[in-house]
């Protein structure tokens, strides 16, 4: 009886420890809000996951999101479903997940004053636009610091309202003023034939330099395909199109060129190609520019 009792006790202990270990779906590791001058907010959320769970559900900070991306620790795209602010991610086997999305719903502007407002279930970090000056905080942040001319706020979970103003982009007029015209020089006269020969020679030099420059900038798209045989047909077509446009194109024009590909699908494709080192995405003004990485 004593032996049987010990066996039962050990079994219960093992089950309890197993439940303790596998009892969580995920832990929030890091949530960041990167705010741009035009009011766009890019949200990044990093999660530590229980790989035995087939799905996890997280809460988004907005009902209107775009450019949604979910990647595991191997930069593999994960499927997901979004209903209202709930995002269900099919995460079986994933130990870490990065979720990214964009939204304009968290910001508003009135009389030159921007306001960022949200209700977060997570502790998070907010990075305001460059040069922003805070004029109102609904509560006291945990930490306030700066990074690359951005004010960075570390906030606890809950409802927040942050108002700020942005510096005007200065316009620099030409203050050099009119200058006195130099006295006219008496230009020597050259024979017409000599001038024609000189113009033709200059055209030949310029044309040769242009051809050499163009060859240097030419993109060997086939070598990219050989290095990445895992690329699918859609990815190859998109890459060929970008190469035909000189290796760079704005995201908006890329979407117009491929209306048959859903916007979210195309953006996920671009982000996957960026993770592979084939593409590079950068902000130009308020737009995203997609360009082929030059090795």
From TrEMBL:
UniProt keywords, alphabetically: Membrane, Transmembrane, Transmembrane helix
Top-level lineage group: Archaea
SUPFAM superfamilies: Winged helix' DNA-binding domain
Transmembrane stretches, start-end: 7-26, 194-212
Designated name of the protein: Winged helix-turn-helix transcriptional regulator
């Amino acid at each position: 009886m004593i032996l049987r009792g010990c066996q039962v006790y050990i079994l219960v202990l093992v089950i309890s420890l197993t439940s303790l270990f596998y009892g969580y779906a995920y832990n929030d590791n890091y949530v960041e809000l990167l705010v741009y001058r035009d009011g766009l907010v890019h949200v990044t959320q990093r999660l530590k996951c229980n790989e035995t769970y087939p799905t996890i559900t997280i809460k988004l900070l907005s009902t209107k999101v775009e450019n949604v991306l979910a990647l595991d620790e191997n930069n593999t795209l994960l499927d997901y479903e979004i209903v209202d602010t709930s995002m269900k991610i099919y995460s079986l086997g994933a130990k870490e997940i990065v979720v990214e999305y964009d939204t304009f719903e968290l910001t508003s502007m009135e009389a030159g004053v921007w306001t960022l407002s949200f209700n977060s279930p997570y502790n998070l970090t907010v990075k305001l636009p460059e040069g922003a000056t805070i004029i109102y905080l609904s509560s006291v942040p945990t930490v306030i610091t700066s990074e690359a001319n951005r004010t960075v706020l570390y906030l606890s979970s809950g409802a927040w309202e942050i108002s700020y103003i942005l510096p005007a982009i200065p316009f620099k007029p030409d203050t050099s003023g009119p200058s006195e015209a130099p006295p006219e020089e008496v230009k020597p006269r050259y024979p017409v034939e000599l001038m024609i020969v000189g113009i033709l020679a200059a055209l030949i030099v310029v044309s040769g330099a242009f051809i050499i420059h163009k060859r240097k900038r030419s993109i060997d798209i086939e070598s990219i395909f050989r290095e990445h045989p895992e690329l699918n047909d859609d990815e190859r077509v998109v890459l060929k199109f970008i190469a035909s446009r000189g290796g760079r194109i704005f995201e908006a024009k890329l979407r117009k060129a491929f209306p048959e590909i859903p916007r979210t699908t195309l953006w996920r494709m671009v982000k996957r190609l960026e993770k592979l080192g084939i593409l590079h995405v950068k902000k130009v003004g308020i737009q995203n520019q997609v360009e082929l990485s030059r090795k």
